[in-house]
Write a structure and sequence with these properties.
- The protein is mostly helical and 126 residues long.
- It has a domain of 86 residues.
- 47% of the residues lie in helices and 6% in strands.
- The chain has six helices and two strands.
- It has a two-stranded antiparallel ribbon with strand order 1-2.
- The chain is globular, with a radius of gyration of 16 Å.
- It starts with a helix and ends in a 12-residue tail after the last helix.
- The relative contact order is 0.17.
């Protein structure tokens, strides 16, 4: 567990979500995956405080992203099929519903938050 609901609501200023514990668990797993498992609960404890703070914010961003896009089921490939908010209405095409153009489970904001930490680095060293 990287963040608690108090950090999410009071420090990150996230939107209220249902089933916080499930979303936090899933978001933490996804952020670990983003970093190609350079981040784990064990390695997290040894990271500099600034990197730990960025990880916490990235997990919070992922929680919001999951909540806004169908909850923890987004990670299971169950993308949003349709929805309405006020005057705005969305409906996916049949190809997208069948996985033709799947939605990323990675929050764009979480990726931007983690970018300066080096945890997303994909290159090799000499």
């Amino acid at each position: 567990m990287y963040v608690d609901e108090c950090f999410y609501l009071n420090t990150y200023k996230g939107e209220q979500v249902e089933d916080f514990d499930t979303l936090e668990l899933r978001a933490g797993e996804i952020v670990e995956e983003m970093t190609r498992y350079r981040l784990t609960e064990i390695t997290f404890a040894a990271m500099p405080e600034a990197v730990q703070y960025a990880v916490k914010k990235a997990v919070c961003a992922e929680i919001e992203y999951l909540d806004a896009n169908g909850g923890a089921d987004l990670d299971n490939g169950a993308g949003l099929q349709s929805g309405t908010l006020g005057k705005f209405s969305f409906s996916s095409s049949a190809g997208a519903a069948e996985g033709g153009s799947g939605q990323s489970v990675y929050s764009p904001r979480a990726l931007r938050i983690l970018a300066p930490t080096g945890l997303l680095y994909r290159g090799g060293g000499c």
